[in-house]
Amino acid sequence: MSLLIKNGNIVTHDQAYRADILCDNGVITTIENSILETSSMEVIDAEGLLVMPGGIDPHTHMQLPFMGTVAIDDFESGTKAALAGGTTTIIDFVIPNPQQRILDAYHQWREWAEKSACDYSFHVAITWWANSVYQDMKTLVEQYGVNSFKHFMAYKNAIMATDEMMIASFNRCLELGAIPTVHAENGELVYHLQQSLLERGITGPEAHPSSRPPIVESEAANRAITIAAAIGSPIYIVHISAKQTVDAIQYAQNNGHRVYGECLAVHLTMDDSVYQNTNWEYAAAHVMSPPFRPKVHQQALWNGLTSGTLHTTATDHCAFCDEQKAMGKEDFTKIPNGVSSVEERLTLLWNEGVNKGRITANEFVALTSTNSAKIFNIYPQKGAIQIGSDADFVLWDQNRNKKISLKTQKSKVDFNIFEGMKVTGIPVCTILAGKVAYRDGDVIAQAGDGRYINRDTFAPYYSATKLKNQINQAKAVDRK
Ligand SMILES: NC(=O)NCCC(=O)O
Ligand SMILES: [Zn+2]
Ligand SMILES: [Zn+2]
Fold first, then answer.
1. Ligand 1 centroid vs 94 CA: distance in angstroms?
2. 53-384+453-461: which CATH number, 2.60.120.10, 3.40.50.720, 3.20.20.140, 3.90.1230.10?
3. Positions of the chain with pLDDT under 50
4. Is ipTM over 0.95?
């Protein structure tokens, strides 16, 4: 059956206009002032609503085995929560154990993700280096639609990538037309600071931010940018939380380097006072890396988004229950790192961004959807409202209020870090591939409704990268 969205105000990253949209077989087939409805069409009246491209969350961890446990939201509950929040595509992470074939890990994650209710794709983490990794990266790119590889510069003695590994992997990314991404924190320093805090008897969650101060992040970001710049590769830095990192990225961009930056809805809206709470469970529920920062960093992140230094917003959704967090009761370094927000990202961005005059509605679309689609090369299939684009939409009521609560959330986690927060501007209906997936509090999409999204290599920015590298290539002096 076709789907007709009537009377909506379409908002994309660069336009706002009133029109009807007809969708057939999961894609947009017609956009016109007025489309006549027929009996073969399901009709949605979007009068008074904004019709925007479905959100793309470029950073989630559903069902992640991590720090001795497994994230509580699996690909079904996590993607249903995403749809309830207006997100129609997630890019999750395959994180192989060191020494595990990265191709084997990829197949494992694909199997887990079959029950996704929204569309999904994968970044693959490089957690070790060997000839098989070099070979498998090519297979992943050529046969499985992967065009981004992740490097964790933190998590020493687990999945940390060394400089040597990053140099090898960034080079391989450049050959393959994929984009390297990094979790930027100096893992050696984090480890050192953690041990010294424990030695001083500071074992609670309040020690977490002290073990990961802003300079630990900005040093690593600088180092990753330097490696990428020396190799001539673009780079994407995930979950930037500190002003110093925004400054480092801006400096690199001003010096001609192609650096993309992501920040999280939680870092934009929450500060580090949560770690001082005397209730251990409350403070531990907020342990994630990088940690929440003093308010001055939040403003720097917003400034980074409005100035164009930062490009995307994500969640890093990685949900752990009280019982799981309690694994670190005696030692904060054992508290599983991660918080949940896949359902709240869009409404937080609207409430704190559009409603406070920090960003426009068009910028909201760019930051929640289009820019990710462009960087990870799925634009205009995703992130756009154009003929031929996937019929993924969020229908937005900018005047409707909601109180965020554990009671109404779709995530399985037993704590909501935004409990009681009042927001204005919420998704009332989410459409995935031309079908209503969420409406007025109910997720209609089923496990398995989401499709795997292949992502081609050599995103458009790569043509400039290749040409620049060719022009700047070192040449031998002929001394014959
Ligand atoms: N962010 C976090 O604390 N947990 C998930 C893993 C990661 O992204 O570092
Ligand atoms: Zn991370
Ligand atoms: Zn993450």
1. 13
2. 3.20.20.140
3. none
4. yes
